[in-house]
Amino acid sequence: MNLEIAIKSLDPENDEHWTQDGSPRLEILSELTGEKITRGAVTKAFPLINRDFAREKHSISEPENSEIEDAVPEPEISAIEIALDSAEARMHQARANLDKAQKEMSESHVAFEIALVEFEKRFPPESNQQKIMAYLDGQKAERARRAGLNTAAIQAVLKQAAQAPVDRAFAAKRNPYGKRPVRPIVGRQG
Predict the structure, then answer these.
(1) What is the CA radius of gyration of the chain?
(2) What is the per-residue pLDDT across 86-98, written as a single tens digit (0 to 9) for each?
(3) HEC states along 16-59?
(4) What share of the chain is helix, strand, coil (3-state, %, to 5)?
(5) Hey, where are the domains in the chain?
(6) What is the pLDDT of residues 21-38, one digit of tens each?
(7) Model-level pTM?
(8) How close are the terminal C-alpha atoms of the chain, in Å?
């Protein structure tokens, strides 16, 4: 006999089945079940069990009925069982998918590491010194480019400055007949 049936079979009116504080006697329950019963096991199975509770609940002495079966009608129990089975199946499927995804992740991580090693063999990463030297070479090339621009500009200015004012005027003339420009007379009007 299991503990639940043994507790339900206790008579609330029999003083030998109950202690003075109203708890079920462990010796009687041990005799009924055929094994040693502890107070913790009784409390775990029926947390509210005491003599007064047994008197109030007449169905506690009927071993066929349980409190859950009395509370939930039979059609609802089957719907709950179906929902429980469905949720459990979904959980198992999700766990299988998770295991598969973790395996794929592990395999792809290994493949990535192998590819990275091969890549670094073909294209070794630059050392810090190499990066600094490349930067300095770039700066040197930029200074040389700027110096070339500055040199050309200075030469153009010097070339223009080397010409006499008259030569500059002839170079800038627009008269097709080649006459020298005449200086206007300033101050006479007349």
Answers:
(1) 53
(2) 898 999 999 999 9
(3) HHECCCCCECHHHHHHHHCCCCCHHHHHHHCCCCCHHHHHHCHH
(4) 70, 0, 30
(5) 3-68, 72-125, 129-174
(6) 888 888 888 888 888 888
(7) 0.31
(8) 147
